[in-house]
User: Fold these one by one.
Assistant:
Number 1:
Amino acid sequence: MRTIDWRDDHVVVIDQTRLPDDLILLDLHTVADLVDAIRRLAVRGAPALGVAGALGVALAAVVTPHDVPAQAALVRAARPTAVNLAWGVDRALARLGDGLDAVVAEALAVLEADVTVNRALGERGADWLLGRVAGPLNVHTHCNAGALACVEWGTALGVVRALHERGAIGHVYADETRPLLQGARLTVWELGRLGIPHTLVVDSAGASVIANGLVHAVVVGADRIAANGDVVNKIGTYPLALAAARAGIPFVVAAPESTVDMATPSGAAVSIEVRDGAELTEFAGTRVAPAGTAALNYAFDVTPADLVTAIVTEARVVEPSAGGHP
């Protein structure tokens, strides 16, 4: 089952807010429907957002052919931090001059390419790790960078899957990923379905897992990679990079080339999404903090390039901490 797909001139997505208890598909027939799904994280993950951006323009071409640029702008603005969303929009919108059919065809090309791109990325990442650490490897990961963050194949979990297929995975430690628990709800669900041994830990235990020698490498995804090699990813990634550097183990970022943003010089130039504080002060609709408590809910953080051992894409491996640049 694909995380996101195009069927009968509309977009279909897995509603990730309903996992792990319910596997529900959403049929999105308008750009407004898609934008809502993106904003409330029914569809999420950098590569999946890239596909969503392209399919959003295709949807506009089908439903509102007279207003495609304006509708595309709404999709592009749905989430500001992940560069893939804008990349997907721009890919499809660039074909508007060739006609509406060309826009849809380009969006479908983006959809299909995501599968092969991330499979290649996973194999390359597995090769790189096995060239430096004798398997079986224990890996630490954060947030969800699996199939649910892509179309069919993950980025960070794509590397884990490739290792698993080679019999080279020992154990995976997954952070719960507060406050929306993408690790607990999504990553652990995926690892279970793949039959990969895993353990869930609270975010604040991640550094201790690394310090106690339980893992050989940290492998995460990315929402944007700046031109200098800084990596923007889910909040809580930066502390793992610090812990990995202290422990002397590789900190690996697995992301497609579409995540590399050469127009952004460094992580300092990225607009970091700040989400509703109620995600911190409430849980499942129940208040867990005193009424009136202020909350600062950063959705992402920036890991400096000098803490990144390797950036693995479908095309190459860059080693920023050794002086490499995207």
Note: The domain at 121-322 is CATH 3.40.50.10470 (Rossmann fold).
Number 2:
Amino acid sequence: MGLLEGKVALVTGASRGVGKGIALGLAEQGATVYVTGRTESAGAHPTPLPGTVQETAEEVTAVGGRGVAIACDHRDDEQTRQAVRQVVTDAGRLDVLVNNVWGGYEYFWDGTPFWEEAGFWTQPIERWDSAFQAGVRAHYVTSVAAVPTMVAQRSGLIVNVSSEGAEKTDTGVAYGAAKAATDHMVACMAHELRDHGVTAVSLYPGLVRTESVLRAAEYFDLTDSESPQFVGRGVAALAADPEVIHLTGQVVRSAQLARRYNFSDPNPR
């Protein structure tokens, strides 16, 4: 029996990449995992990358969990609220919320030569809007919708997927500001949720071998990179830790979680 048997999770932005890896990591421990994404059918991707939300749900079930796909564009607040309502109505509980969905990466696939956006003053304002609407705002709205159930249970874990870009100055103005905003949002949420038994953390993966990174592998040193499912095992370990409240409000890194909880990468380099 998995450590998360009977637990229910919602992972946003899970058609591929880190979100998919997290869903699979939770599924390995027997969780029921609801996954959201915009891509519903192969060949109809918002991005030129493989993966659909239904495929992720099927893989979740295949590795030992129960996967449920929810088509959702988290730029639309009502779609976000409806996704959370579906989880709570179907499952009657919500133990883990992983806010992974993000925006602002459009320049990777909209045909813009990267050198034409070498400074924030050369970028369309939409890059900022996307990072904050499809990223920070989506994390906030999903949490607002999910927290009443967790408070009523007096238990729950919220993980906002962030990055070291929040602490650096060379990752782009919009990206860095948005990641810093989501980190501070977690700290503030943790302050308000602690007395209700609900934990909130920011998660920094390392360099993850997502479909997007592998597509541009020639530009990366993948020597110390992580598989998406390695990140997922970190989230699963947090979700299974009965003392996880001691980490609330903090930034946790996937490599540190591996040492803390003694797990390994299922797909090492």
Note: The chain is about 40% helix and 15% strand.
Number 3:
Amino acid sequence: MEKQGAAKRVGIVEVAEIAGVSRQTVTRAMNDMPGISAETKKRVLEAAERLRYRPSRFGRELVQQSTRSLGLVVSDLANPYFSEFASEVAKVAIANQWTLVVMEKHPGPESGKEELRALAGQVDAAIAYADLPPKDIDSVFGSLPLVLLDTAERTLDALSPSYPRSALTIDLAPGLAQAIDHLVARGRSRISLVDITYPKGESVRSRVYTALMRDRGLDPHVVTVASMDDDLSVGRCAAEIALNAPAPPDAVIAFNDLSALGVLKELRDRGVSVPETCAVVGIDGLKIGVFVEPELTTLRLDFAAFAQMAFDSVVQMSNAPASGPLLQIRKYAAHELVVRKSA
């Protein structure tokens, strides 16, 4: 709730609307950068003066360091998945002389929309895990070139074609198929999946896993746990549920590596040997997986390649001619099975 009497600060979005230009053009005009005509610059400066727009010191510092700035939106930097991915994006951005601004947006369609709008007004493009409805994605990011990560196909199809958008999605099927086939080849038949439900709804993992198991004549068994403060607790809870079932699993594929570590902890506390009695497979390929005992078998995502794919899409959209068709790019990445001692 806004404080009584508090005036809303005019931002780059309002200047862009009045001047009839993009936010990137406002940034260039306000910071005396090349790439726009004198007439356009004059129109932007007049609009800024009329609105009494004052660029933030933060925004000016970004522009002074680099001709372009990139926003990265993740869910939780305390989660190694997002911190490892952010580290790779930073490497790519620095190598290409872009400034990186990182923001956390916690899960939930109503979370962080105003903060996202503020970020969108400060950067030239963005890469985002954004679990927002299509109308909110369009209203928050507007004409900003945007790469959406792990977004449902139905969301992408509903986005406005008037804005530059790209989607980078992880195709779960190849990696999960590798994991299931690896476990079956080693005599496992009761393979359970740990699934986490978030506010955005059912996990794609559950649907893909169920289809793959049935294709192989195996009964799927999904242990669903609501999102908790940490995925380690999710893994422990899921393992407890699975082990108390009439037919406990002889293998568990966890939602991610962190929940897999929780599964390992619960199994160890119960005296269940891994992998002899129950094999464990994670998903993500986090570095921490080699520092546990037994070392974690996992479906590894190549974070460096994933970050490069996302950045390449940013560059493609940012460099597209203003008069040409808007780019709508879709790319896919996949996991690779890395076999270690836990399976």
Note: Residues 172-301 form a domain with the Rossmann fold fold (CATH 3.40.50.2300).
